[in-house]
């Protein structure tokens, strides 16, 4: 039995601020990388506090599996009293979220400069 391929072009950085946790995603959020995204977003050691920002400004591709993971993570965090905001530039993930009407579900903000 072979194990599934591990994506090489995805990374997640977690930055703790006093008032929020920022998860910066890089690469493609698809069926191969979503398990890593879930491990990060559901880890209370890394992602804690009342506000979570998932920065998608460096994401080059977001598919339906990635969208499903973001929706589920939002629901999970909300059930624990936290908020989840997405930070997007004018990129493919933002266009897909808008096209699917999820810009009305998620708070979407501009990414932080720098």
From TrEMBL:
Task: Mark the transmembrane ranges.
Answer: none
What GO molecular function terms would the record report? anti-sigma factor antagonist activity
Q: Where is the STAS domain?
A: 10-114
Q: Which InterPro entries match?
A: Anti-sigma_ant, STAS_dom, STAS_dom_sf
Highest taxon in the source lineage: Bacteria
Similarity-based family: Belongs to the anti-sigma-factor antagonist family.
Q: What is this protein called?
A: Anti-sigma factor antagonist
State the organism named in the record: Nocardioides marinus
